[in-house]
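#lab-general

N.A. 3:47 PM
ok so I finally got the sequence cleaned up, no stray characters, all 235 residues accounted for. can someone with queue access submit it? mine expired

B.Y. 3:52 PM
send it over

N.A. 3:53 PM
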Amino acid sequence: MKYRRVLLKLSGESLMGEKQYGIDENRLNAYAFQIKEIADTGMQIAIVIGGGNIFRGLSGAAKGFDRVKGDQMGMLATVINSLALSSALEKVGIKGNVYTATRMEPIGHLYIKQDAIEALERGEIVIVSGGTGNPFFTTDTASALRAVELEADVMLKGTRVDGIYTADPEKDPTAVKFDEITYDEIYNRGLKIMDLTATTLAKDNGLPIIVFDMDTAGNLKKVLSGENIGTLVHN
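B.Y. 4:20 PM
back already:
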């Protein structure tokens, strides 16, 4: 395997699978099997999951929720998803520890960098939930932050699209996929891959990101084996 320690960012919306809302158990179990495939190689894996399948702070604010409270609701949604993934991982024989950005025992351990690194070194999956613990930050920013803190070799952004394109491939049939792209080019082209805070954090800390299709079984292992799928983002 090409990397020793990775941070995997999963989309909350992807957990819906075929449903309109909530968690599709089949999709969740498929993710757990993919994660087990790479955990069995000895790779150290940290995971951050979004909460958009349950609640999004920004869309809540647009409907009249206070923005801070809306973001807090979104952070709690990520905790629910993290508990679901931890349960699915345990069913396939892997220990998945849930950490929360704010104190929430007995639901999860309070996230402390050294505790999380020690769990990774014991071969346990570390699932960091609750975003950054602060409003006005996305789970993409939380992912970049945790990846840098936990000294991950790479951040993997699992989506339903197989990489970064010149335009949205679901809307523009002429969109062309990048095999690799720099952070500066993403900014200059105005590509909406992640929010600017997350992009800047990754760029400033030299954190490479691979955007790939997580919904195709086996892709996670292929990416980490060095196969040329997805798009590599680098300085």
